[in-house]
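Entry:
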Amino acid sequence: MRHLKTLILLFIVSSFTVGCFEDNDDTQISASQINDFVWKGMNTFYLYKDDVPDLANDRFSSNGDYANYLNTFSTPDDLFNSLKYQPETVDRFSWIVSDYIALEQLFSGIITSNGMEFGTFRFSSTDTNIYGYVRYVLPNTSAASQGVKRGDIFYAVNGTQLTLDNWRTLLSPENYIINIGNYTDNGTPETTDDSVTNTSETIALSKAQYTENPVLLSKTLDIGSTKVAYLMYNGFTGTDQFNAELNDIFGAFKSANATELVLDLRYNPGGSVNTAILLSSMITGQFTGDVFSTEQWNAEFQEAFENENPELLINRFVNNNDGAALNSLNLSRVFILTTRSSASASELVINSLSPYIDVVQIGTTTTGKYQASRTLYDSPNFSRSGANPSHTYAMQPLIFKSLNVNGVTDYFDGLSPDQNNILGESIRNLGVLGDENEPLLARAISIIDGSGRSSITTSSKSENLIKFTGNSKDLLPFSNEMYIDKDIPDHLIKRILFE
């Protein structure tokens, strides 16, 4: 009943009995004070609230019952994780942090990195040993200065062989040494006898704070008489600076008279919904004001939005970024390169553009994240302003799922290319990013010029047995994120809280 919910939300938690602990600012605070914030935030915003009995509005018979419930969880993390709906299958992406400063830095593109972005693989599902391979190197970093390059193989860190159990631990420190190996195909086309041989070469790497520009590479290719724009975009970072720079790049594409675009999202884990809208509007331009995507929230929020202002549930194509005109290409076709590392906002672009233009997806199946989240702080309206100064906990729960204009959503297993365009990256032949002969880009070019020069069978053959197991983004606890930037009206939040 809503009346009891109101009592709980007004209840002062100073009587809770759970002992104190220190947060990241060394401030002593009762765990249950933060637990109170966790339950309220999840009860208000969580997408799957109706599926979690402990989040029901009538869950507690009294304020004492509520206090006793919160006291059963010794940490806010324990409570938060208990409230996630089917975390192994449905909600794989909600999380809580004890330091929202670090979270905000990540969303701004600020990370701690040595510049080596890598993936890991093993030769069969029974192998416990794994190997690292370099996907790309960030400029002006330790890896760049040490000459690390795409395709380099490493088998150990500080002399310890990488395994499924230890690779995260070995590659997490600020400083470490990688042991370089050589990929060996033994001179045969089969992959059953492939291996990595050890060498004595080592490379020492050091991490430092780094602001990653999501644009790794942009260029225009002359394919016959066709101008083909190529953009490798590695994160929907969402800052004003990077959105403006993205628009400038499309301005350069437009000035070069590009009539085709290859958008490389193969390593892009996602980010800002707003940036996904901007990018999609730059690709097109002829659909300003049309529905890009819609949002489906929990039952209470959905009803409140529909009664108050249904337009708040709709994201539309735009023609400007805070008043600055977008440089749009007005394309009717786009090529998008993907792997299993392509997630959230990357998938949003594919799903939302598909009803309007021909989206030619090339590569492998994406992650399968169609839900978005919002950062919740311990404040009266869960915003950053007025956050409780006694701690730095924040939550990032899933709050809505995205649908394209045709209602397509719930792509839990990811978005897959057409059969003819399924093409896995090959350790044997990763190629040079942005080069016309790099296998995934070459496949797009072969469709553009009709040459048929891309050989899918040859390029992907070695992936039949090689198992890709992880990547450097996995070391960031909140990398596969799709989050909203827009404000939710305070009166709408209060309606949910107190009706």
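The longest helix spans residues 240-255.
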